[in-house]
Amino acid sequence: MDAIEIARQRAEQLHYAAISRGLDPWKPYAFVVGEANSRSIDVEKCLQGSDELNGSRAFFDSAYRLITHEDSGSLFEQAFLVAHEIGHVELGDDTQDEYVIDIDPARTAEPTPSGIDRVVDYSHRQRREVQMDLFAREFLLPRSVVKKLHLECGMSCSDISSKLGAPFDVVAQQMLDAMLLPMVEHKPRQPEPDMSLNDKQIEAVRHRGKAFLLQAGPGTGKTRTLVARVESLFNDGIDPRRILLLTFSNKAAAEMSERIARKQPHAAAALWVGTFHETVIKIV
């Protein structure tokens, strides 16, 4: 399970929790403002291009617990801006000011298979913004909801778009994600019994400072050691957004992310987890 999927599943949980508090999901702006208020966060509109926004479209002031956004576009687009900022708060950015320069509500969940986006790496900030866009869309219209509306209620993308006040392409993209992408199991697998680390593994977990080289063959507990090291860094107060985890296979990368998510899902959503091959492709 990667960081984006963790974020989307958390957004879906928040969607249903908001409904249980009496918020109406068919009124997206009131729905997202209600979610912000439940966190003691105020939401204010201001004129597009005003000094308060400092050149952005929305702004979260961590000191005053305030989300300010431009008063332009549809109510759904404004709701998306607020939901984007709530994503930052929910996923660990609530201690710093966050600016939203732009949004893409119809953003695809999968990386571009070809073209310049396939080989040009994104900065951490850009990757975080992608994650927040998908969080916001999932909060306002979860995949499980759009699938149910279509299969059980017979609603088309146009029907949902009209009732929600959302652009057709946003609903269509969420429908495609719901119907075509494989569903990731919400329940984590039964955790494996904790196994004690040997002296060399403990040394790797506790090491701080210059690079540390530990040679290990197949089946020697490399993943377990890396996960333990990440948890040790968390305990030292290291920001998860400053931790990069690289391995050789997608399976191992997913396993590391999932193991960490079992105990600290918010931190797992902020980590950089991937493969050496993927990183090389992006920076070539």
Oligomer: single chain
Largest sheet: 4 strands, mixed
H/E series, N to C? Answer: HHEEEHEHHHHHHEHHEH
**SS-based class:** alpha/beta
Q: How would you sum up the global shape?
A: globular
Structure notes:
With about 280 residues, this protein is α/β, with parallel strands linked by helices. About 50% of the residues lie in helices and about 10% in strands. The protein is built from twelve helices and six strands. It has helices spanning about 5-20, 30-40, 75-95, 125-140, 145-150, 155-165, 170-180, 200-205, 220-235, 250-265, 265-270, 275-284, and strands spanning about 40-45, 60, 65-70, 100, 245, 270-275. Strands 1-3-2-4 form a four-stranded mixed sheet, with helices on one face. A two-stranded parallel sheet has the order 5-6. A hairpin with a 4-residue loop joins strand 2 (about 60) and strand 3 (about 65-70). Helix 2 packs parallel to helix 3 (about 75-95). The radius of gyration is 20 Å and the shape is globular. Residues about 110-120 and about 280-284 have low confidence and may be disordered.
